[in-house]
Amino acid sequence: MPGQVAAVSRNEVYSFSKPNRDSITLLTGLGVEGDVHAGETIRHQFRMTYEPDLPNLRQVHLIHEELFDELALKGFSVSAGQLGENITTRGVDLLGLPTGALLHLGEQAVLEVTGLRNPCSKINDFRKGLLGEVFAMDPLSGEFIFKCGVMAVVRRGGTVRPDDSIRVEPPPLPHRPLERV
């Protein structure tokens, strides 16, 4: 069963949260039209100061809506766009995707997953104590699990709306696990 777009968000200015929209337009090789993080080179406010010429592997931020359900059980009220994501999904195991997975959104748009979002301390500014809830420790490996979504680049542009379907196309084998970008 395909996943679904739960919400879409963008912001023209640097701000932790992004307002929900009726639709967003994805631009090939750039990101979300009108979003502050769109561009060929890195647009992350902090990283631009010391790595301004790196390719932008964080053009589009996706978070699974199921994370909000998990956080609500721990007393945190969080909704679409509030953690800065552009696309909120439902029914897609974003964190289980391999690097290079393609996400077909609606009729046209295609994203390529580049890695995990590296949660920052601004999450605690948004809700005190929330940063500790978007990490987990893998009991087998002892490694951190980052639960705050994935980052992607736009391979084919198009308009994306809430309720659009999401189809996952895995990359060729061997699969590489997601790393922070």
TrEMBL record:
InterPro entries: MoCF_Sase_C (IPR005302), MOSC_domain (IPR052716), Pyrv_Knase-like_insert_dom_sf (IPR011037)
Region (Disordered): 161-181
Residue stretches making up the MOSC domain: 18-169
Name of the protein: MOSC domain-containing protein
Source organism of this protein record: Streptomyces pratens
Phylogenetic lineage: Bacteria, Bacillati, Actinomycetota, Actinomycetes, Kitasatosporales
